[in-house]
Amino acid sequence: MFSLRNNLIRKIRTYGKHTTPKRSFAKMKKLSTTFLQRPGEGNVKRVSLIDGEGVGPYLTDSVQEIFQAAQVPVRFENIPMVEAKEMSINIEKQTLDKLHQNDVILKGPISNDDTLMWNNHEISKALEIYAYIVHAFTIPGVNTRHKDIDIVLIRENSEGEYASIEHELLPGVIESIKVITRESSLRIAEYAFEYALLSNRKKITVVHKANIMKLCDGEFLEAAREISIRYPTILYEEMIVDATCMNLATNPQAFDIMLLPNLYGSIIGSIIAGIVGGAGIAPGANIGRKYAVFEQGARHSGKELAFTGQANPTAFILSAVMMLRHLGLPFFAEQIQNSVFKTLEEQKIRTPDIGGNHHTADFTRRIIENLD
């Protein structure tokens, strides 16, 4: 069994290397990637769209304009946010039915307050999406302290402190229960190692606090260790969350894939997004057995930027690019991604978060102009 797996791994590693003679970039651009679709894959894809709040409407408008200009075969079906604390069961059921209507959802940022009928955690539970991914990488044209960063964070998204089991034992004494299960820990570890294998990644760092939370985080570590044995070519390491934060601040290039329980993933996901330029730079996604939700990596609703029109749509557009690859539309994904990178690298149009004074609409128009 291991020999078969190792043969497959060697083939994938070899395929990922540059074995052809060096060519100029101009000539390389003329080459195309072979993509063999199934019959009917060219049909228009239906995607549920949630505008979200704060800067959300600016971001979703930007993606829709770019998709229209690039003639992407995707039809968006809008699911409006309902801002009310008390909604009837019928309205809640209708919204739930819409969430289940399509397998893929593009979601603008949503805060986890009580004014919305659906927040991030409720959507995750409703769709049973358990893997939350943030891809933080260096983009030329975005000035940052650290260079050459390429980190994929994979966060368990269904339990931990987010199990929301809290109660008041006595007046002024609150107890919160952290839930870690073997089944969920094995599931997310399997996803992380499978992702590493298929993406030609070399190392997985499991982040924990098992020195203090010996049972909860210890169970998470045991599951990761068990799965790691099946993938001998992928380097496995463990790191306490405190040391992880320090190493991210001093040497983030040392990380490849990070595997974390829910709360640590939420915090460190925002850290790595900040390292590469901020909430408007790093894309993200949520993956389950059936459903996939794509959103910016740092779940920051940007309420302070609402109605200013100055949000950076880069992270959200790149999340939509990830969605296109997921839908089997790689050409459109590469076309839009290259245009985003070109727009950032030429530094003509820049939103305030990356040193400019332009609006979301200006940035969007420039991306459309740069479409190849």
Largest sheet: 10 strands, mixed
Question: Approximately how much beta-strand content do the residues carry?
Answer: 15-25%
Structural class: alpha/beta
Count of separate structural domains = 2
Poorly predicted sequence stretches spanning 5 or more consecutive residues:
1-5, 7-28, 84-88
Shape: globular
Quickly count the helices. 12
CATH architecture classification of the largest domain: 3-Layer(aba) Sandwich
Which radius of gyration do the C-alpha atoms yield? 21 Å
CATH superfamily heading of the largest domain = Isopropylmalate Dehydrogenase
CATH domain topology of the largest domain: Isopropylmalate Dehydrogenase
- Arithmetic mean of pLDDT: 86
Strand order within the widest beta sheet: 2-1-3-12-11-4-5-10-8-9
Distance between the termini: 45 Å
Secondary-structure element string: HHEHEHEHEEEEHEHEHEHEEHHH
Specify the helix fraction band. 25-40%
CATH class of the largest domain: Alpha Beta
Number of strands: 12
Structure notes:
- By secondary structure, the chain is of the alpha/beta class.
- The protein has two domains: 44-132 and 281-372, Isopropylmalate Dehydrogenase; 145-275, Isopropylmalate Dehydrogenase.
- Helices cover 39% and strands 20% of the residues.
- It is built from twelve helices and twelve strands.
- The protein has helices at residues 2-16, 25-28, 56-69, 89-99, 120-127, 182-198, 216-228, 241-250, 262-275, 314-326, 330-346, 360-369; strands at residues 45-50, 74-78, 104-107, 129-137, 150-156, 160-170, 173-179, 203-208, 235-240, 257-260, 283-288, 292-296.
- It has a ten-stranded mixed β-sheet, with helices on both faces. A two-stranded antiparallel ribbon has the order 6-7.
- A hairpin with a 3-residue loop joins strand 11 and strand 12 (292-296).
- The longest helix has 17 residues, at 182-198.
- It is globular and about 55 Å long.
- The chain starts with a helix and ends with a helix.
- Belongs to the isocitrate and isopropylmalate dehydrogenases family.
- Pfam families: Iso_dh (PF00180).
- GO terms for molecular function: isocitrate dehydrogenase (NAD+) activity.
- This is Isopropylmalate dehydrogenase-like domain-containing protein.
- One of its GO terms (biological process) is isocitrate metabolic process.
